Amino acid sequence: MIEIADADAARRWAMGVEREPAAFEALDLRDCPGFESGTFDGCLFLSCLLTPAQAGYLTTTGATVIRDDPARPYTLNRARLYTPDELFAGYDADAEDGWASTWDATVYRHWRATGGSTPDRIDESLARRLHDHSISDALYEAVDDRRPVAIMGGHAVGRADPQYAMVARIARTLTREGYLMLSGGGPGAMEATHLGAWMAHFDDAELDDAIEVLSPRPAGAEPGREYADPDWLHRAMEVRERWAVDSPRYDSIGIPTWTYGHEPPAAFATLIAKYFANSVREDGLLAIATYGVIYSPGSAGTVQEIFQDASQNHYASFGPPSPMILFGADHWTRELPAWPLLRALAAGHDYAGLLTLTDDESEIIETIRTYHRVTSGVRHQM
Question: Does the domain made of 134-369 have the CATH classification 3.40.50.300?
Answer without folding.
Answer: no
